Amino acid sequence: MTHAKTVDCSGGLLIGHDGSEFSNAALSWTLDLADRLGTSVTVVRAWVLTTAPRPKTWSPGYMPPLVDFEEASRDRLQADVADLVSEHPDVEVSHQAVHGRPASILVEGSERADMLVVGPRGLGGFRGLVLGSVSEQCVRHAKCPVVVVHGRGEQETPPARLSLDDNLTPDD
């Protein structure tokens, strides 16, 4: 058995989901759009050994095959998005866990998608970034239109003034 290294997508909307609130907001937007357009959604989670959940077959001293890590990643993805997906029963949704770097996987998958959707940033990086590295790479290199979904609220918007700035302000 081999594990997936590419996205299996033939049209429709492709979205990267890493489990963050940003990706949940992007998925909600994507599902709403797919419902209106009558198209399918492919939800992808990239994984590597250091980010994959522990497979059911794991035990001390035993390294499960990569397909077990893929299955664990896909199961976690399905659990993470189940509530959002259930709000759109008419949308055909496929869940895929693909081994590799998120930006590379999404850009490669964009060759066969009608549109790629990402959140502004994911679990990594620095709080307050307007656009994360994966989102930026997708915008720059995708082979289809890309939508970056920014959620509403303070958490998604960087502060106008960083706390470090207070320390640099001259004393009165």
TrEMBL record:
Gene3D superfamilies: HUPs. Residues 152-172 are annotated as: Disordered. Pfam families: Usp. Residues 14-150 form the UspA domain. InterPro entries: Rossmann-like_a/b/a_fold, Universal_stress_UspA, UspA. Belongs to the universal stress protein A family. This is Universal stress protein. It comes from Solicola gregarius.
